[in-house]
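name: query_chain
kind: protein
chains: 1
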Amino acid sequence: MIGSIDGIRVPHGDNYSYSASKAAIHMMTRHMAAHLVGEHILLNSIAPGPFPSKMMAYMLEDEERSEFVHSSNPRKRIGTAQDIAGAVIFLSSRAGAYTTGTVIPVDGGVSTL
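structure:
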């Protein structure tokens, strides 16, 4: 499943319904994983931080807002397709076969602040 770091931490903006819905995805991941693991079904959630997307376009198209997004990330950048692909490959490969019910932040450290 795809959640968001805004479902883990309190976001800067006032996107209450967005963060509540992403937190629900994270809990649903854990809840379903607990009930389906006995059937050999693994469920995990990825919680992306800032990545280029339609939702982030508003922040990234403006130079001042874009600088805020970059500077407020411990890695001082936004994510790339390769960053998210690594988490997806891990979870869909043999390497992730013993991982279930987890929420994996892929956010450059934003959720640690």
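note: Residues 89 and 106 are 13 Å apart (CA to CA).
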